[in-house]
Specification:
Glutaredoxin, 6-stranded mixed sheet, 6 strands
């Protein structure tokens, strides 16, 4: 075989190898695209699952994310993540006693603040989405009802418990105007407000949730005895 033929044969083999590699890469890319598309389709069509309904609470002087007398001598703030199990425990055990003993009696203004830190470990951003959804509910005077239904339906962290479809289903369960809610929710309307709370938390040494402040003083824990003791101390020194 002449040198020319040898070169042509080698060139043909190289071209065939490139063609095989290109075909293989295209197949891999197509497979990845198919998997992503399948995931998106499943995420938008999978069953919503059961929803735990709530009984609306009798809450005093509600104004968005706060409740109680705006001129109360003590301000209690809690930074929470809607996916945080300890926050769910705080809502179920500490919050009712706090409201009954101090908010309803005009001694405490209670403020809820966002700190969706669990999303730092995930790309699904269910905590952020839940926070935004709660603010969209607040537009229809249902922040605390939405707050309660979120905690009642906690189901692990970033595994679909607060998927967009479930967050919308919670709103529907509460009887919200869905056109108004969806417009707000899909626009991530309250993203900046949520980030402002996160920035505030970082300036105040918040590292986890729930973190409670009484008159701007961070507490070492969030059990009711700790919160109650701090409130009583603040009341004793209030003007």
């Amino acid at each position: 075989m002449s040198n020319k033929n040898i070169r042509e044969t080698r060139r043909e083999k190289r071209q065939q190898q490139k063609t095989r590699e290109l075909t293989r890469n295209l197949i891999i890319i197509a497979g990845v695209v198919l998997l992503v598309a399948s995931g998106l389709i499943y995420g938008s069509t999978r069953p919503i699952g059961d929803i735990v309904e709530i009984t609306p609470r009798d809450l005093p002087n509600v104004d968005g994310r706060q409740m109680g007398d705006p001129d109360a001598p003590v301000v209690v703030e809690v930074f929470e993540d809607f996916q945080c199990p300890a926050c769910g425990n705080f809502t179920a055990t500490v919050e009712p006693a706090l409201i009954e003993d101090y908010v309803k009696t005009g001694k405490v203004l209670f403020i809820y603040r966002f700190y969706p830190f669990i999303d730092d470990r995930s790309a699904t951003k269910e905590s952020d989405q839940a926070a935004n959804a709660s603010m969209c509910a607040s537009e229809q005077d249902k922040f605390w009802e939405y707050h309660d239904i979120l905690f009642a339906n906690q189901n692990g962290e970033n595994i679909g418990g607060f998927s967009n479809r479930r967050l919308q289903a919670f709103a529907e369960t509460l009887g919200l105007n869905m056109d108004t809610f969806n417009s707000c929710f899909e626009d991530s309307k309250y993203w900046d407000e949520i980030r402002q709370d996160v920035a505030l938390a970082q300036t105040r040494a918040v590292t986890g949730t729930p973190t409670v402040f009484v008159n701007n003083q961070i507490l070492s824990g969030f059990s009711y005895p700790i919160v109650q003791s701090a409130i009583e101390t603040a009341l004793a020194t209030a003007p």
